[in-house]
Prior knowledge:
The protein is α/β, with parallel strands linked by helices. It has helices spanning 12-22, 82-86, 104-111, 129-137, 147-161, 180-186, 210-217, 249-262, 281-284, 313-328; strands at 2-7, 27-33, 57-58, 68-71, 91-94, 141-142, 171-177, 200-203, 222-228, 235-242, 266-268, 290-297, 302-309.
Amino acid sequence: MISVSIVGGSGYGGGELLRLLLGHSQVEVKQVTSRSHLGEYVYQVHPNLRKRTQLKFTDPAQLEPVDVLFLALPHGQAQKKIDEYAALASQIIDLSADFRLKDAALYEKWYGVSHAAPAWLGKFIYGLPELHRSEIMEGRYISGVGCNATASNLALLPLVQAGLIDLSAPVISEIKVGSSESGAEGNAGSLHAERANVIRTFSAFGHRHTAEVIQETGIQDVSLTMTAVDLVRGALATVHAKVKPGTANKDLWKAYRAAANENPFIRVVKEQRGIYRVPEPKIVAGSNYADIGFELDESNGHVVSICAIDNLMKGAAGTAVQCLNLMKGWDEMTGLDFPGLHPA
């Protein structure tokens, strides 16, 4: 058993992380902090955790040393106190955007402010195991992942790994998002996310998660667009790209199957029969799975790659626990084997 604590546990991301850690066979949760809910039972904020824990929210100033410290703070806060947090734990997993980008200049470009701890950017490993599994296994500091970036990166993963994309054409990822994303992204999981007027344009161009896709795929001409839909949990990325001349459906099948075989949480969904023939966010809700599929027009090389994830799981807390498992040498799926619900 190892000891862990969560800094900033009152939001969606922190609550989801706590749910997973309470059910993890190798973990003891020592503290969960929140200034706004100081002294309250965590289940008063996260009602699904009734009879799961008697933990109360504690003051961040009263944090005690642990083996692993999870940071689920609003974006921009972890970087201001990273030295203090590093003194409390030998390993840190940060769910926010503070250490995702490796270049301080790019951080300032995409987030509009100077980074408070640029020397730390190179110490953090981008926390998407499907891209950095071996580095995470040896790592001490792991960054969070953007949910929209994760859906896009995993949709592109088979094509990038197989070298099938024609980089002379732009790549466009159109993402449908649930209402929980406005809280999870805007305030590291605020429970007060606005849920009225859910069906609206979320972001046309220039979303900051674009920087993560550029950094992780190497594709420079890429655009992310977000549209909020009448859904609470979930993100569905529909990525349009061109494949290299001569690429056939059999080449894509080989690439997608290889990605699924190499990664326990990737499932290929491309069916000729059945209820769900393409990836669907409802089916992965509450799980750490990423369902991917594709369609290719062989006549012109236009490929559509689709990825469905739960934005609070594979796009945040689930991937964080997956990283913990890798760092500690445990089975990657420990505490994450929930397959999702059907019907949903």
